[in-house]
């Protein structure tokens, strides 16, 4: 066993974790671009429409908890590959259904489409798995930047797919578009499985090297974070920290809000301004999703410098202003509404980078478990919010698409308060782990 050589490097670990997250995370945009088509064919209410748009986010959020904690036991490769395979099954089912029946879908097929959305959403859960996998490869002083790159690049997927899919729908049709998406996901899953590598500690353990010796060698290779227990222990350990639950609340607004609006903004532009779905997809991508993804890198970087707590306060203030601006814009002032979308996208992206800088800081001995709670329950906002926005539409008609953003006003104010409390308690401890 002494001759065993660890494979990979922090760079390879980051690249493959980011790649796996990218191909799985595209499912956020699964139904947003075709929501109007399905609404008309199936005769959906505002609530059922919101539920369909949000469907991938249910499994994509809740499965983050056990799968991220599983990383602490076996490393990131097996959990992430498992989620991608489940997503492949969902996309295969959806593609088959559309090939056989679209556009002659029956109302009862809504529930089957919803189910395939749940399965496809398993790929979204790769986020917290990759977070833990990346964190184990890098020293804490570089985690903010590394995790910013991971999440920033991976987060580009919904924007890119939300932008491409409407054009593909027009040129090659809905069924062919989803079949090609299935092919992309299948090939990507195979590539991840072939080339991804776990952090040194996990490779050494799998090679049969005793734990103490594996820890020593892993630290010699630069791995600072070492898991302390099993999946259940990791979840329990991280759950004991009140800071974990504070970050869950913050992430519910920033990332859960991001997931919800990535699908919903396309519907917003189409219904509020009678816009073509292709143009709505472009506005969602460039004005919100891609912006939030790219600027997340900056959020992680600046959090390394001045602390994630202060960055969160600033970011959620941007979200608050953006939501208010959209409410003011209603469905009559395009420039005002677009300005609000851009503000919200930038604020959410920066906050996302800041919050996950704080995860290994607050819970260094159970990072996988903490990433599971924060990434899972936080991302649950992506499932909860769209149906609520749909209720505003049922109550107020077209105006409900803008009035519904009062939900984000409330969430942003709550997040600012929580961030301020954390800043007062820990703001000066920028890179120093919180003691047990």
Automatic annotation (TrEMBL):
<feature type="domain" description="Major facilitator superfamily (MFS) profile">
    <location>
        <begin position="13"/>
        <end position="427"/>
    </location>
</feature>
<feature type="transmembrane region" description="Helical">
    <location>
        <begin position="41"/>
        <end position="59"/>
    </location>
</feature>
<feature type="transmembrane region" description="Helical">
    <location>
        <begin position="108"/>
        <end position="132"/>
    </location>
</feature>
<dbReference type="InterPro" id="IPR020846">
    <property type="entry name" value="MFS_dom"/>
</dbReference>
<feature type="transmembrane region" description="Helical">
    <location>
        <begin position="178"/>
        <end position="196"/>
    </location>
</feature>
<feature type="transmembrane region" description="Helical">
    <location>
        <begin position="405"/>
        <end position="423"/>
    </location>
</feature>
<dbReference type="GO" id="GO:0016020">
    <property type="term" value="C:membrane"/>
</dbReference>
<dbReference type="GO" id="GO:0015112">
    <property type="term" value="F:nitrate transmembrane transporter activity"/>
</dbReference>
<feature type="transmembrane region" description="Helical">
    <location>
        <begin position="371"/>
        <end position="393"/>
    </location>
</feature>
<feature type="transmembrane region" description="Helical">
    <location>
        <begin position="342"/>
        <end position="359"/>
    </location>
</feature>
<feature type="transmembrane region" description="Helical">
    <location>
        <begin position="245"/>
        <end position="267"/>
    </location>
</feature>
<dbReference type="InterPro" id="IPR036259">
    <property type="entry name" value="MFS_trans_sf"/>
</dbReference>
<comment type="similarity">
    <text>Belongs to the major facilitator superfamily. Nitrate/nitrite porter (TC 2.A.1.8) family.</text>
</comment>
<keyword id="KW-1133">Transmembrane helix</keyword>
<feature type="transmembrane region" description="Helical">
    <location>
        <begin position="80"/>
        <end position="102"/>
    </location>
</feature>
<feature type="transmembrane region" description="Helical">
    <location>
        <begin position="144"/>
        <end position="166"/>
    </location>
</feature>
<feature type="transmembrane region" description="Helical">
    <location>
        <begin position="279"/>
        <end position="298"/>
    </location>
</feature>
<dbReference type="InterPro" id="IPR011701">
    <property type="entry name" value="MFS"/>
</dbReference>
<keyword id="KW-0812">Transmembrane</keyword>
<dbReference type="Pfam" id="PF07690">
    <property type="entry name" value="MFS_1"/>
</dbReference>
<keyword id="KW-0472">Membrane</keyword>
<keyword id="KW-0534">Nitrate assimilation</keyword>
<protein>
    <submittedName>
        <fullName>MFS transporter, NNP family, nitrate/nitrite transporter</fullName>
    </submittedName>
</protein>
<dbReference type="GO" id="GO:0042128">
    <property type="term" value="P:nitrate assimilation"/>
</dbReference>
<feature type="transmembrane region" description="Helical">
    <location>
        <begin position="12"/>
        <end position="35"/>
    </location>
</feature>
<feature type="transmembrane region" description="Helical">
    <location>
        <begin position="310"/>
        <end position="330"/>
    </location>
</feature>
<dbReference type="InterPro" id="IPR044772">
    <property type="entry name" value="NO3_transporter"/>
</dbReference>
């Amino acid at each position: 066993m002494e001759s065993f050589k660890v494979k990979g490097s922090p760079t390879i670990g980051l690249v493959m974790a980011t790649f796996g997250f990218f191909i799985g995370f595209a499912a956020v945009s699964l139904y947003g671009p075709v929501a109007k088509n399905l609404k008309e064919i199936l005769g959906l209410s505002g609530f059922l429409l919101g539920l369909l748009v949000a469907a991938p986010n249910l499994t994509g959020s809740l499965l983050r908890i056990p799968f991220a904690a599983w990383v602490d036991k076996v490393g990131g490769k097996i959990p992430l590959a498992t989620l991608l395979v489940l997503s492949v099954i969902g996309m295969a089912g959806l593609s088959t259904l559309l090939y056989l029946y679209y556009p002659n879908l029956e109302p009862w097929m809504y529930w089957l489409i919803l189910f395939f959305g749940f399965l496809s959403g398993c790929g979204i859960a790769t986020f917290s798995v990759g977070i833990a996998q990346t964190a184990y490869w890098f020293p804490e002083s570089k985690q903010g930047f590394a995790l910013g790159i991971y999440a920033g690049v991976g987060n580009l997927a919904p924007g890119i797919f939300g932008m491409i899919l409407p054009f593909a729908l027009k040129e090659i049709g809905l069924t062919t578009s989803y079949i090609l998406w299935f092919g992309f996901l299948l090939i990507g899953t195979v590539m991840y499985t072939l080339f991804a590598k776990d952090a040194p500690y996990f490779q050494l353990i799998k090679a049969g090297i005793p734990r103490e010796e594996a820890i020593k060698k892993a630290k010699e290779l630069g791995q600072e974070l070492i898991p302390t227990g099993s999946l259940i222990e990791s979840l329990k350990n991280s759950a004991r920290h009140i800071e974990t639950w504070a970050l869950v609340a913050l992430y519910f607004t920033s990332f859960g809000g991001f997931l919800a609006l990535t699908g919903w903004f396309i519907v917003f532009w189409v219904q509020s301004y009678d816009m073509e779905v292709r143009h709505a997809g472009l506005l969602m991508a460039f004005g919100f999703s891609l912006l939030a993804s790219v600027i997340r890198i900056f959020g992680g970087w600046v959090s390394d410098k001045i602390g994630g707590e202060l960055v969160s306060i600033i970011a959620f203030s941007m979200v608050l202003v953006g939501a208010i601006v959209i409410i003011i814009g209603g469905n009559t002032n395009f420039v005002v509404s677009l300005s609000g979308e851009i503000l919200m996208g930038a604020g959410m992206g920066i906050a996302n980078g800041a919050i996950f800088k704080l995860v290994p800081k607050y819970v260094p001995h159970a990072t996988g478990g903490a990433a599971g709670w924060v990434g899972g329950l936080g991302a649950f906002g992506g499932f909860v919010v769209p149906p609520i926005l749909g209720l505003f539409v049922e109550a107020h008609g077209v105006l409900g698409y803008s009035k519904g953003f009062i939900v984000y006003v409330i969430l942003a104010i709550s997040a600012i308060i929580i961030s301020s409390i954390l800043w007062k308690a820990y703001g000066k401890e920028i890179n120093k782990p919180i003691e047990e």
